[in-house]
Specification:
Largest sheet: 8 strands, mixed
CATH topology: TIM Barrel
Bound molecules: iron/sulfur cluster
Strand content: 5-15%
Number of helices: 16
Oligomer: single chain
């Protein structure tokens, strides 16, 4: 543990920044075990039905979810204000978390977890466009020291598959090309992985990939078996349906979304998705309004005007509490590296003046990025 902070001293010094402390207050308190993680709270809220009863319709389950969400939000508020202590000894037979798990398994077959809504019959192990079938696939997990200062050491779990098809993906092997080379794990095993990471010193559990969206049912179920306290971090492209987001929003303590493109044209060209802007910005806004958040923006070469500027302006207006990581580490990878002639305009690293232009605009807009970038 000590050697981690020796390698990343900023992981300690960043907490001296009052803005970081204030904006990540919930995450900080869970990280230090001063407050229970949201999934721990969700597990203590008893529900008076069997959520796995197949005779209950999905519509009915959503209504029950909405009812218990009110209870959850009231308890969360009181816990934040120091007016409520969780009774961790009481383990109900079925909880608010079980409702979420039950809905998630219904949403995954035919699948509409991500905004592609491709409808793959994943119960029958049919793969969706994301490349994931009926099982949770984990490629690796470890204490990641390369994440933002407040997050490291981050207990990172790399899942296989991704709804986006980025032609420059740095994790293209696990997200697109060799998804099956990962290990198939059960929700119980996934909980054991999380426990091992936390007990080894992780500040959080960082669900990433590929992307964790196709794995939502397994991740939610793993929380049922996870018997320790740890902040849950969602590290994702956020190209998910509103239904999927509603399941996550009460169990994720800190969000780490990507906001890559400032328009649908660039998203379709480089990640082969439609309606990117509306879907992703609405989801990020909802996450921001319901939790702590660090937004990542990877600057693409030649995309300052069409993407970076629009994104930074949107962040300043719509998610003013967000900390932002303006990322300069783009490098041509995957198909761009293989076919540089075909993708000439992004077959290079960003220029210094592009980075400075992004910083200048962020400063002008009052965006807090320096402690994080
Ligand atoms: S998560 Fe995968 S299977 Fe589900 S809708 Fe998206 S692409 Fe299809």
């Amino acid at each position: 543990m000590f050697e981690y902070f020796y390698m990343r001293p900023d992981a300690l010094s960043v907490w001296a920044d009052p803005v970081v402390r204030e904006r990540l207050a919930w995450y900080y308190s869970v990280m230090r075990n001063e407050k229970p993680a949201k999934f721990v709270i969700a597990k203590t809220i008893e529900v008076d039905i069997d959520p796995y009863d197949k005779t209950i319709s999905l519509e009915e389950l959503w209504k029950i979810h909405a009812k218990y969400r009110e209870v959850f939000r009231k308890i969360l508020k009181e816990i934040k204000e120091g007016k409520y202590e969780l009774d961790k000894t009481s383990v109900p037979r079925y909880s608010f978390l079980d409702i979420k798990i039950s809905i998630a398994y219904r949403l995954y077959s035919p699948c509409r977890l991500c905004a592609r809504r491709c409808g793959a019959e994943r119960f029958k192990d049919r793969r969706g466009i994301c490349g994931v079938g009926g099982k949770c696939i984990v490629h690796s997990y470890f204490h990641h020291l390369g994440e933002e200062a407040p997050l490291v050491p981050s207990g990172t779990i790399f899942y296989g598959g991704c709804p986006l098809k980025c032609i420059f993906c740095q994790n293209w092997d696990i997200s697109q090309a060799y998804i099956d080379r990962g290990e198939k794990v059960s929700p119980k095993e996934l909980a054991e992985i999380q426990k091992e990471l936390r007990l080894g010193g992780a500040r959080n559990i960082n669900h990433v990939g590929g992307d964790p969206i196709p794995h939502i049912p397994f991740i939610l179920e793993s929380f049922k078996y996870l018997d320790i306290n740890v902040p849950q971090l969602w590290n994702s492209n956020m190209y998910m349906t509103r239904e999927a987001l509603l399941l996550l929003v009460d169990v994720i303590d800190i969000w780490l979304p990507d906001l890559k493109y400032g328009n649908d044209k660039c998203a379709e060209k480089y990640s082969l998705v439609k309606n990117y802007w509306e879907i992703v910005t609405e989801n990020i806004k909802y996450a921001h309004d319901n939790g702590d958040i660090i937004i990542r923006h990877l600057i693409l070469p030649g995309h300052i005007h069409c993407c970076t500027k629009k994104i930074l302006k949107w962040i300043a207006k719509n998610t003013p509490r967000a900390l932002v990581n303006i990322m300069d580490q783009y490098r041509p990878e995957y198909l761009v590296e293989k076919y540089p002639e075909r993708y000439k305009e992004i077959a290079r690293r960003i220029r210094k003046e592009e980075l400075l232009e992004a910083y200048r605009l962020a400063d002008e807009l009052g965006i807090v990025y320096r402690p994080i970038s």
